[in-house]
Amino acid sequence: MAINAVVWGENVHEQTNKTVSDLYPEGLHGAIAKGLNADAGISATTATLQEPDHGLTEERLAQTDVLLWWGHAAHGDVEDEVVERVVRHVWAGMGLLVLHSGHFAKVFKRLMGTPCNLYWREAGERERIWSVNRNHPIAKGLPEHFELENEEMYGEPFGIPEPDETVFISWFQGGEVFRSGATWKRGAGKVFYFRPGHETYPTYHDDNVLKVLTNAVHWACTGRAQDVQDVDAAPNVPVSEALEPIEQRGATLHEEGEEGFR
Amino acid sequence: MAINAVVWGENVHEQTNKTVSDLYPEGLHGAIAKGLNADAGISATTATLQEPDHGLTEERLAQTDVLLWWGHAAHGDVEDEVVERVVRHVWAGMGLLVLHSGHFAKVFKRLMGTPCNLYWREAGERERIWSVNRNHPIAKGLPEHFELENEEMYGEPFGIPEPDETVFISWFQGGEVFRSGATWKRGAGKVFYFRPGHETYPTYHDDNVLKVLTNAVHWACTGRAQDVQDVDAAPNVPVSEALEPIEQRGATLHEEGEEGFR
Amino acid sequence: MAINAVVWGENVHEQTNKTVSDLYPEGLHGAIAKGLNADAGISATTATLQEPDHGLTEERLAQTDVLLWWGHAAHGDVEDEVVERVVRHVWAGMGLLVLHSGHFAKVFKRLMGTPCNLYWREAGERERIWSVNRNHPIAKGLPEHFELENEEMYGEPFGIPEPDETVFISWFQGGEVFRSGATWKRGAGKVFYFRPGHETYPTYHDDNVLKVLTNAVHWACTGRAQDVQDVDAAPNVPVSEALEPIEQRGATLHEEGEEGFR
Amino acid sequence: MAINAVVWGENVHEQTNKTVSDLYPEGLHGAIAKGLNADAGISATTATLQEPDHGLTEERLAQTDVLLWWGHAAHGDVEDEVVERVVRHVWAGMGLLVLHSGHFAKVFKRLMGTPCNLYWREAGERERIWSVNRNHPIAKGLPEHFELENEEMYGEPFGIPEPDETVFISWFQGGEVFRSGATWKRGAGKVFYFRPGHETYPTYHDDNVLKVLTNAVHWACTGRAQDVQDVDAAPNVPVSEALEPIEQRGATLHEEGEEGFR
């Protein structure tokens, strides 16, 4: 059965900037979804900021294996309730791919616990992306390096936690480097950040970029069948149900079986 | 010069529960600060929930090398503004030690990006803490294992990100295990979680526990002199100031030197 | 196409100890292979110390997706040439599962770069294995904890590098804990260590243990199609083939295109 | 008391290549030791391949807090016995800094368990080293980036295990990137790899490079007072000395208190 991928797009510059709408007549989200759907194992749809619940209702997220997130100008317009909903689905087992300027998206900052900041320059310079983790499933079938002739520069230090795995590092023509592909786990969910994707360049029409995203969707999908339920429960284990026989000793704050503080 | 440590205590059960106030007449925070002050290299003071700004004003945090956090019943009463202030100081370089039930403190959940949940049982059972990371500065001078005859049980799975380092793992009489000492870095700040410390037991009078906390204060202190300024800035690097000579190419969203979106 | 798994068994105590031969008439390797073959996606065969090349010729390893390694009394009898051969196949992309007393196997110590030592006790005590990494593919379908009523104890500190992922932690009746399931990557190959499996107990007839091993075979398999070739090559990139135009500057040790030192 | 640092130099090209001997009349090891000794907290001496035991006797290593290793043309001439001696001291608690072409040194490959290979080019091109880990003690007092106008290029993929911490990433004029500063722990010892240092360039006269090495010596020093003794011992814990009362059950291979297999 195909993996359910949802590509979330902010869909702002597509409406206001002719360069962007010319490059991406169906939106960046549309171009990404089209690229993913070229893989028979993926069924990708889109959601946007402007829809009710930003297109990310509880029902839809519950059926989403992997969510991709592209945002830039309107991070502040994303409702906190939807952010929390997304975060809880990641904790339960949904995969999350955060793209480019999504480094400052609420969902990413919320899951990382760090500022997620960086240096940047919009000069259309050359970016060369190096694979540093041999045989990583996200780099499968890609050359050891590939170029994007025109991209925005993002420069280190990138304000992220030490990645579980560093998959890609970028070289920029203007002299900077950047950890362009990195993975983390949050709860039961897998998270991947991928750097390229500035809206004024044709990055999401690049075969290598689409290959990375396709690979990453497969990598991030754990299936939702074995989801963690009640993702932040902190169950009390009564003395009488201890795995090894023990007896109650000393003073207690709680009555047997009482809820804990949160 | 001595390390400035501030021990933050929720100070609730000390006022409402005779077991707790008998064990800790100066509060858990008071007992911890007293233990730290036995080390000539540390100058520890206390702050509590009930003070204005919970005792954690901008001025005070700016002079704090390491903050210790003990909370339990009143996590929800900690003002979000103070939480953000603490988080930003960690990002800048302040050390943070999170103690026991602080696993559900807003500051810890905010920095981890995970649910931080666990199983628990309040049976006064025996806990044995094993050092698993040889020669780690936080375990310096401690035996390979030590016991707390009466403690609350916390059981895995513990809802944290994969630690940068696992320092201690606990064995519980009732059959559970727990990653009792773990480290992470967040921005420029070092974070350590240490499990023991239930308020109805004399844990913070235990020499080994105080040794761990003393070691951890030294470990977490980076000095504030080399603090990161403006912790979440994302500076634009104009084309004219690129480290390697490049020329502007392609379309741009931003004018030269303009602020980026957040 | 099924995953090619090879279960390597030392096959010593099976020949010399009646308890072991009664429990494992087809050898520990035979029992493990049988358990794996219950999964339609795996085709498992065996190899033993006593065969020429210990059953691990270049040809056989080249067709092996995942190698499982059980050894105990005869680590010293494994030829260094075969060890290097195994190590190079791991670097190229072969998965490796190291079982129980294999912590002291030459192949494991060689890949870890650490002493791999531990405390131990052969008392037939109860071991309880806790899953600490939610939704990890190796823990898929397993309960949060399971028991082995009779096992050898291994105790921390375990002399391994900080794992990439800690998947299982064991509780022992006699008071110890142990990181029982841990993963690392070495070159292009994935490595998993799994603790239980003492030869005088029926561990490899336990459904949960066989489930772990079956899951781990799937997890460790990257397919050999995208293997790294010439795993420790250090190719020179001539100035004339640099990705960005540069000119030769300063003194050199090597002539253009010459081999480097090793 | 000052940290005892020993700078090990292969001392081959200093004798055979005029460019090298002109740049480093006292050897690369001499220049590095001189740079370290500018710090009042470090007492650095040198050792070379040509001395008996390569200058690294058991007695000398026992008094060494941090060993620095520079080798290139003669890795194969380093005796295996000395390699094992160094490795065991690292496991016990000695710090180790591996420099530049030392990526292929026996001691480094032995401790990493990976091929440690890379791409390279000797073109005297510009290298720019970026600090990616804010406030890391090894990067203390350094700018966010610094340049070496002439260096050898090393390019990814670098065949190392996922670092515990990535501290520096290099940008090369010819289009490559490299993880230039990375840390690992092996046993009780801390290991740092630092990339720059080709012998035909004045790298070890550069203030920033010497600052990195000085910082790294402080970082890697744990003092030898709390060394792990008998670094690869695997002690038996007799049933009668179990921390929790247990009784012997089931069959055993070993007599009470017998040595384990290795």
Automatic annotation (TrEMBL), chains A, B, C, D:
Residues 6-220 form the ThuA-like domain. Gene3D superfamilies: 3.40.50.880. This is Trehalose utilization protein ThuA.
